[in-house]
Every structure is written in C-alpha cells, then in structure tokens.
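Justification of computing resources. Each target in the renewal requires a structure prediction run like the one illustrated here; the chain below, 200 residues long, is used simply to show the kind of job we budget for.
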Amino acid sequence: MAYLLDANVFLEARKTYYGMDFCPAFWRWLTVSQADGQVFSVTQVRDELTDDGIVPWVAAQSPGFFLSEDESVAMAIHVVTQWANRQPLLDPVILEFMDSADMYLVVHGLAHGHTVVTLEKSAKDSKKRIKIPDVCDALGVRCIEPHVMLRELQARFVLGAIHEPYEGANLARISRDEPPRPAAADVQESLLRSVPTGTA
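Resulting structure tokens:
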C-alpha cells in the first residue's frame, strides 16, 4: 500500500505549516518516501500544482512521483464513473468531478489499493461538489488526512544544522555504522553552559 497525495496537501503545506523556507525537511521527506515506494501522487495533481512557489520542487521530482494511468486504472475509471453517474446531482457537478484530479486519485486508490491523502472534508449532502472522502467511502478506498499519514510512516523532522544530510529522511536508512551525531538540544545546552554568568 502507498499513499496518494491530493493537490491541497502540497499547497497547504507550502503556504502554512511546512513552508519550504522554514521546514525543508517535509519536502525532502516526500522525495525520500517516494523513492522508498511509500508516497506518490498522480499526473492530474501535478498539472494543478502551478503555484510559483512549488513549481521548482515539482520539476525536481522523479517522473515516478506522479503516477500515470495503467490498465488497472483504466478499468477502475469505469467503476468510479458509474458511481458518479448514479448520484442525484446535476450533470455539471458530475462532469466537473469526472474531469478533475480528484477522480483520478480515487481511481488510482481503487485500482491499486492505495490510501488517498487529502484535506477535503466529507459533505455527503452537498449538491455543488463531489468530495473525495465521500467517493472513497462509497467505493471502499481508504482516505485520511496528512497528519495520519505522517504518523503511520513515522516521519521525523528533527532539528539540526542547516547542512544536516539526514534532515527529513527516513531514519531507518541511516547506517548503523555511522557515529551518532549529538542532538541539537544537547548542543544548545552545552553552549549555554559555556556562557559566563557574571558571578564568582
């Protein structure tokens, strides 16, 4: 099982809690986790990531980060489309969903047993838009929020020097043969002890 990220996960992270200027570890973690086969998105989401602040990061990712359609996905599209057409909604609402990255996240999740990660909230009574959590619930696709994914994958964003090579990486990949590095808190405490107090 892998995790498929919605566009709002990337965009909200950049704008708020995991800004690239003060939390590069989150973005490095995404890259490492994709290489480990754990975190992905889909090409339709990539096409939505046009914000100037995130475009360079998207361009730097492996082509495999954003999954394209395969035979299983093509079969799952039919299932999701059938479900959408059965909903008591106006045609424009259904067509908007079927032409969106949202549908392809669900389709990939259904086709390969992946978990969809989104900030969208359920709105089963909405007549204006089909929400990802509601489609996932109806079709048996697991859908969670980003913080759940981070806990399940045991993400660790550890404070350290700006050049810390393991910042945001999967800690399990660090060689056990490498000498342990002092924790940032220990370094700070040591520095504080060395500051003169001005007392005899």
